[in-house]
Amino acid sequence: MPWPKQIISPPSPPDLDILGDQVTLHPGGYVAPSTKPGGDGEQNLVEHMARFRESPLDFLREVSLHVSGQGWRAYDDVLGQPIFYSGFSEDMKRMIMQTPMLRQKLEELAGSRVLIEEREGLLGSETDLEEKKKKKKKKKRRQEAIEESLKEVALEMTDAMICKMESKRFIRGAYYVCTQLLTRAYHQGIHVSSEEVLRLRSVAEDAAGKKQSIIFLPCHRSHVDYVSLQIICYRLGIALPTVVAGDNLNFPVVGAFLQHAGAMWIRRSFGEDALYTTLVQAYIDTLLQNGYNFECFIEGGRSRTGKLLSPKFGILSFLLDSVLSGRVNDAIICPVSTQYDKVVETESYISELLGQPKPKENLQDFLSASSVLSLRLGRVDVRFHEPWSLREFLNDQIARIDAFQPRSPSSPKGTSRKDNRVRLLRTLGFRVLSEINAVSVVMPTALIGTVLLTLRGRGVGKGELIRRVDWLSDRVRNKGGRVAHFAGAPTEAVVDRGLEVLGSGLVGIVPGLPETTYYAVDRFQLSFYRNMTIHLFISEALVSAAMYSKVKQGGGPDNQMMSFNALYEQVAFLSQLFRGEFIYPTAGLLANLNATLSGLESDGVLSLTKDATGKLLSAQVSAQERASGRENFDFYCFLIWPFIESTWLGSVSLMGLTQPLTPQGEAGETWVDFTKAQDTAQLLGKTLYHQGDLSYFEAVNKETLKNAFQIFEEEGIVFIEKNGKDKKSRSLICLAEEWAPQRDPETGQIISQGRLWDYIEMIAKSRREGKNRRDGATVSSRVLRLTDSLGQQLFENAKVDGVIGQEGPGSFVKRKKSRRDSSRSKMKARF
Questions:
Q1: Can you give the pLDDT at residue 2?
Q2: Which terminus of the chain has a lower count of CB atoms within 10 Å, N or C?
Q3: Are residues 152 and 282 in the same domain?
Q4: DSSP code of 26?
């Protein structure tokens, strides 16, 4: 088996002879690829891994090089601060415990406890001067004792939390084992951009000299994400980052392995544990002050839908505080995109999205998942955005805030500072997500999945599939996106490769036809791959869906013409509706709308009418697009329709929260279990899908419905509140009074009118309706009766659970409404 060029960096002359090419050695043994005319600038960083059955001698040679630790395998002269030495963990714990922040918090907590004991009379009385002296000494001794006790607790927490990268021999073995396992599942390896990794090494070298940390912020679609990034850093000779991981993965054997490979365990929820919160901040401060690289996932958990999730501000807030406070001078932000031909966990994701509870991670499930190692899942593509200074970003943003939004003298003290912090966090989070999208590579499986789910009809011939994949690839590139490169292979070969990876479980072939015809077997799972492309076309999708509100009315071209004002209104509504789902361009609604309309006109999808001054008056589907069967216009609609359908479903389910009538004929007032309300919305969606009133089964997925309910809460349509402060407290939901529809006092049935009904109708304007449209109203009386029936079951369950009879919305709802109205006025859709 010949050694591949570009990526091997063996130390001995014979290995260099095998390369037969001129190479450039860098610290850590990394070899820069030779530049060749027509090269794609990509490398497979794990192509050197040999298999025993294929090449026993090469396999044994590779093992011997890892065991002996030669060349880059020794992981010696890495770029970054030293981490692999005996006593590293103890040094880290000592530094954390000595941080002024933690010591101050321990003193503060001990003092608070002493005051409580004093108020409870546990420290004696003060009848005379002598007693006061004794009490003062007793308080001091008691405080010291409590502080020592808290230190012990903090030390135990620290030991359980911190990563323990102490052994180079261990990390060499871990690298080899993980790479062997990963390349058995992803048989085409881990691919990176040569230009990007050389730039990253240059940044790492500069950061190491300044003792600054590189903060890697990857997207999160799979557990493979952090394994692949660790492998890349090892292979490039960059100090491994400390990786923030949820303690749900800290189960026996595997947890210890991951902790010694770089995992930092944190709780999923900190609650009101002030000591633990301070401890996490102290650890992050210590890492960044000493220049250790760091990694956390900006989305929090793994994306179950295939697209980027909204940023989570937990760990990001700690990082921001480290630099804003001045405790850390600076750190380097590096957004990272990881894309897969096929994600290992998609089947389990679908189970979760359909309402199955997420199983707790354990060793048995981990070992049983080893079957994936025999799969051929294609390749992993990792891309690195150009890194940038967090300090410079913050200085620039603070200067903008001071220049354009000075605090009003009448504002409460501290309000502006708090608001500015939230604004900084949001800007930072969405910038990182935008840059992840900017460097993401669209894989062949994503192209195929997108095409199959955006065509009318049951299936597609191979020739048409190839044509549409070509068209979509061109559209991706025109939008500034990247398509995975396959060394000039024809589209047919790339499509065949993608179909092989997806397998017959996702894409089937209709037998006995004169042309090979494919169809989507599992549309729900295939939607995961379609969603990997939607960020590139979200502007076009929103505009097309808004236009569809006119197109669906039928008639001739003139009848389907939409005024600019009406188009603007519907696009504004949709962009607000999906502000938690998608990341929009930052130019603002009007600028983005005009740019999108111009682009659709240039592509021949829309025709625009303007007055003599160039002002846009109206838009309609172009004659050219009509002649082609509206395939491009429909493509954009198909991308967004499942999300519109899901939000419509969520809003319809709210009708079921209409309070039942009391015996006196008045509307009652109660709260219902929020989780059960979401489950009921899913059950409603499954029923409507099988009855033909819902076009997309993926519209019932739990994640999109959860986002819809979040928007409903932000709009003040519903109120969601915990019924207690402990972890086991349930969340309850109640329909806001001003949004609640009325009931017929005689029949008790919900009347199809009112503010919520109008809101549903607004969503439905852009919805692709199901086949059953026998009733004139968008939400037919039959659907409304089903919704109400399910809602009544919720209220019956509330009685059994003891929710009815608790304090209703009352004053705290008014406080929440006031707060939400205030916050909602500040939230502007960025499309």
A1: 35
A2: N
A3: no
A4: -
- CATH number of the domain where residue 492 is located: 1.10.10
| 443 Cβ contact list (under 8 Å, min separation 6) | 339, 340, 341, 378, 381, 484, 498, 529, 532
Question: 221 and 112, same structural domain?
Answer: no
> Residues 21-30: what's their mean pLDDT?
40
Confirm if 759 and 651 have CB atoms less than 8 A apart: yes
Q: Contact at 8 Å (CB) between 217 and 432?
A: yes
Distances (CA, A) of 139 to 105, 126, 128, 173, 462: 18, 12, 16, 53, 82
> Which residue, chain included where needed, has tokens 């997925």?
701
Q: Which backbone phi and psi does 346 adopt, to 5 degrees?
A: -60, -35
**Same domain assignment for residues 737 and 779:** yes
Q: Which residue has the tokens 């354990």?
A: 362
Residue-number span of the structural domain to which 332 is assigned:
41-78+165-439
| 12 vs 509: CA distance, rounded Å | 51
> How open is the CA angle 37-42-47, to the nearest 5 degrees?
115
Does residue 742 sit in helix, strand or coil? coil
Dihedral in degrees, nearest 10, Cα atoms 498, 501, 503, 509: 20
* Sign of the CA dihedral running 614, 618, 623, 626: positive
179 and 142 in a common domain: no
Q: Tokens 């922040």, residue?
A: 101
Same domain, 480 and 388: no
Tokens describing residue 787: 């919704």
647: closest CA among 574, 717, 593, 714?
574
- Looking at the structure of the chain, the number of domains it has is 4
* Single-letter amino acid code for the residue at 488: G
In contact, 520 and 579? CB cutoff 8 Å:
no
- Report yes or no: 518 and 502 within 8 Å, Cβ to Cβ: no
Closest by CA to 360, choosing from 268, 283, 446, is: 268
For residues 304 and 266, state if they share a domain.
yes
Structure confidence at residue 809 (pLDDT):
43
For β-strands 562-563 and 731-735, DSSP reports them as unpaired
Q: What would the pLDDT profile of 390-418 be if each residue is shown by its tens digit?
A: 999 999 999 988 877 655 555 444 445 67
Domain identity same for 577 and 633 = yes
What is the value of pTM for the model shown? 0.87
- Spatial separation of the C-alpha atoms in residues 72 and 235, rounded to whole Å: 7
- By the 10 Å C-beta count (0-12 exposed, 13-18 middle, 19+ buried), 338 is classed as buried
Quick check: helix, strand or coil at residue 171?
Answer: helix
154 and 176 together in one domain: no
Residue 314 has pLDDT above 70, yes or no: yes
User: Which of 159, 80, 144 is CA-nearest to residue 113?
Assistant: 144
How far is it, in rounded angstroms, from Cα 472 to Cα 450?
9
And the tokens for 498?
Answer: 């993608």
Final residue of a structural domain among 130, 161, 192: 161
- 138-148: per-residue pLDDT in tens? 778 888 899 99
Q: Is the pLDDT of residue 534 over 90?
A: yes
Report the distance separating Cα 207 and Cα 201, nearest Å. Answer: 10
Asked if residue 784 lies in contact with residue 655, where contact means CB atoms within 8 angstroms, the answer is: yes
| pLDDT value of residue 525 | 92
What is the model's pLDDT at position 130? Answer: 66
pLDDT digits (tens, 9 = 90+) for 45-55: 887 776 666 77
